[in-house]
Design a protein that fits this description.
This protein has 208 residues and is of the alpha+beta class. The protein is 32% helix and 25% strand. The protein contains 5 helices and 9 strands. The protein has helices at 19-26, 74-92, 98-112, 141-154, 169-179; strands at 7-10, 40-45, 55-57, 60-71, 117-128, 133-136, 161-162, 192-195, 203-206. The strands form 2 sheets. Strands 1, 2, 3, 4, 5, 6 and 7 form a 7-stranded antiparallel β-sheet that branches. The protein has a two-stranded antiparallel ribbon with strand order 8-9. α2 (74-92) crosses α3. The protein is extended. It starts with 6 loop residues before the first strand and ends with a strand.
Length: 208
């Protein structure tokens, strides 16, 4: 299992929770399929088929948070609402007001939600309890916060702190590029892709 992104946090070292306790407390927030009337469902699933809610190997733990979301685009709701608003206007002789339109959209959302397609995503978590590392495979801090929020709901205690470095990664890597050399374990290659963390996911790619 490869992590494509790293959101890094610190736990007390060693973290005073045993594997059995963690697994039992995670069961409080285990994943259940998204009900037909709800837009979202989130919970813990086994990170491997041969594991429980926690996979343990050589003192390292893996978790997996699964999210199921019903896909109901706003454009579909608005289009259906517009059609019904026109029908109401023809029946009552005048267009529906703002409050009536709001209630109409809410009613349409309730009607269409059970028929909406669902999409599942999974966020993996690596924990080193002995040395106090907590790492989320998420491209943004907002996505990592979803995992942390669900853990706080499940666990009796979760003393997590953000990782603070003496120097920012951006500054360090800029110096690597300016100097043309990188520390052991890293290389400077000829291709680069920069991605925005905003919703638009804008990207710039440099080749050779």
């Amino acid at each position: 299992m490869w992590f494509k992104n790293l959101q890094i946090y610190r736990l007390p070292a060693p973290w005073a929770i045993d594997l059995a306790t963690l697994d039992a407390q995670l069961a409080r927030g285990a994943f259940a399929p998204c009900p037909s009337h709800q837009p979202l469902s989130r919970g813990w699933t086994p990170p491997r088929q041969d594991a429980g809610l926690v996979y343990s190997s050589h003192g390292q733990w893996l978790l997996a948070l699964t999210t199921e979301q019903r896909l109901l685009p706003a454009s579909v709701i608005n289009e259906t609402a517009q059609e019904r608003a026109e029908q109401i206007a023809s029946e009552q002789g005048y267009p529906p007001g703002r409050k009536q339109l709001k209630e109409l959209r809410e009613r349409i959302t309730e009607e269409l939600m059970p028929r909406a397609f669902t999409k599942k995503t999974r966020t993996n978590v690596w924990i080193n309890p002995q040395h106090g590392w907590f790492v989320v495979d998420a491209g943004s801090q907002t996505k990592a916060e979803e995992v942390i929020e669900h853990l706080r709901f499940c666990l009796d205690e979760f003393p997590l702190k953000p990782l603070h470095t003496q120097r920012s990664p951006q500054s360090a890597m800029a110096d690597w590029l300016a100097g043309g050399s990188a520390p052991a374990g890293f290389t400077i290659d000829r291709d680069c892709e920069l991605k925005s963390v905003a919703e638009e996911k804008a990207a710039v790619r440099y080749v050779r």
